[in-house]
Amino acid sequence: MKIEKKLIISSVINAAFIVLVGIVGFQYMNLVLTKLRFVEIADDLNASFLEMRLSEKNYFLFHNKETLVEIQNKIEQTRKTLKIEGNDIVRAIGVSDLRGLEMRLTTYETAIILAQGRAPQDPALESSIRTAGRSLKEYSDSITQLERRRVNEIILGSKRFMLYSFWAILILSLLISHYISQKIVRSLRGIEAMTKSISGGNFNRIEGLQTKDELGAVVSAINSMSEELAHREEQIIQSKKLASLGILTAGVAHEITNPLNNISMIAQTYDEMYDKLEEQDRKSFMQRVEAETERIRKIVKNLLDFSKPKEAHPREADINTVIQKTLMLVQNMIDVSGIETSLQLHTDLPHVFVDEHQIEQVLVNLITNAVQAMSEGGWLVISSRSHNHGESVEIGVCDTGKGIPPEFVPHIFDPFFSTKGDGGTGLGLSVSYGIIKNHGGEIRVESKVGVGTTFTVELPKYSHQDRVNNGSESLSDRTQLNKELV
User: Fold this and answer.
1) Is the dihedral angle over the CA atoms 42, 47, 48, 54 positive or is it negative?
2) Domain 3-177, CATH 1.20.1420 — does that match?
């Protein structure tokens, strides 16, 4: 059922209860008004009956038969009133009570008529009139008092009914609203989780939310979008792989072509001048060939290191100790370059779970790049600090070198991309990037031309799960390097 229909049905149910309460309340109000109308009539009748009884007493005191005529006239007026207001009286007290009242009125009227033809001193007549008058007055008073009580009871009952109805409608509305909102919220939470999953690269379908309402339509649309995104992602990954393959191919071709050209030129020159060359010159030519061959070998080795990194052997380590060991390896290079070094290592850092040799390789590469960027000397700041509320550790390598142009920064970790011209292979930072990614970390760069460059390496802290695994799963298995680079 669609949400719109659910809302309409819930609104209709609430409206029906409200209308029902209104109808019952209206009936209560009509009943109260009817009772009050009878009480007004009864008060008038009681006043007439009281006047009749007073005239009756005057008759027995003064024996004036005109008083009986007055009583007769009042009885006639009372009958007219009962006839005119008969419908209201019947609705209030019912036909039986009205007939009882009329019967007693007739009895009293009969006694008055009999008294008009007899002497006032007749004891039996006096007793008959008094008894009939008393019965009429008492009956009228009892009905009036009963109806007053009924009015009060109706008002109290209607008050309770309205109060209970209010709470019943309120609770029913809350329950219906809660039921519908929970269904909507539950579906929306599923959709929210799915969209977050899609943003994280997981394109699985939403299961268990295939309702027949608007949310079901949204879920179906998201599932269709997820399938399309998964298909598009495959196309994008394939195109990126082809692009990366093109970059690798172009880089390898460029890096190997130069030494091959040199070897070809040396070989041609050697062949043409062989008879004129001394033995030492011949050795020199062969040494140059060997040097160019060694250059090709290093390019191939770096490429293999880049595409197929060696399996890591991680263990618990203190990052400050790793930094200090690395600094000892490159201290001579730093001293020769005339660079001042500053260590800013924070104490009490959480341990990390790393392959120390691979992290040293990354730091050596970053420090070497920093030294080469400060050909005329400068400051090298190596720092460590806790990050993300102690969940990770950051290493900073900051130099005061020439900096990296902004247009080069997005490509700094691309394979075979180098700002050193022929002086670099463009694989060092790519390999470093892969190593840090395989450790579950991040590597970032900030640079400003003429000011310097800062590389930041972030590594997750050593956890209990790392201790359980204890290296049983190689870091290279956690994240595929080629996929990360693509």
Assistant:
1) positive
2) yes
